[in-house]
Amino acid sequence: MRFTIRAVMAAASAVAAAAAMSAVAAPTAQAASSADCASGKVCLFEGAGYTGGILTLGTNSSGLPNCEKYLGDNYFSSGTLADNNASSVINNSGTAVVSYNKAQWPSPQGDWYFIVSAGGRLSSLTQTTSYWGGSGSDGRGYTVNMNDSVSAAC
Ligand SMILES: [Ca+2]
Ligand SMILES: [Ca+2]
User: Which fold has domain 34-153?
Assistant: First the structure.
């Protein structure tokens, strides 16, 4: 009887170990890295440090990034809505990209926006040098928390 219980426990333990191993080995299909942002592309990442899901913005016939006037109909590779969820950005294109807090490109009235230079990247958006658009704009850069707030990019 004691032997039987031990055998059952050993079997259960083996099953648990196998389950743990398969959990570790399971592919994390939705996890992205900076390497996933192709040459010439502009990419938004769900997490800081180019992690989580990735959204690669399209390009036009000239190879320049397409304007995404509203990210409410774009999704990261993880399935998360892109609007108000971007936490890092890579700009592998040859042109600067402007990211807006509000979905009102191209006139940022009463809206914070920041610029990612050609070839530039921001691993975090919590302290982003941003500019106030529209009425009262003084052209100065301010440190603004733009994490999980980008709604448009152009
Ligand atoms: Ca995020
Ligand atoms: Ca927003």
Answer: Gamma-B Crystallin; domain 1 (2.60.20)
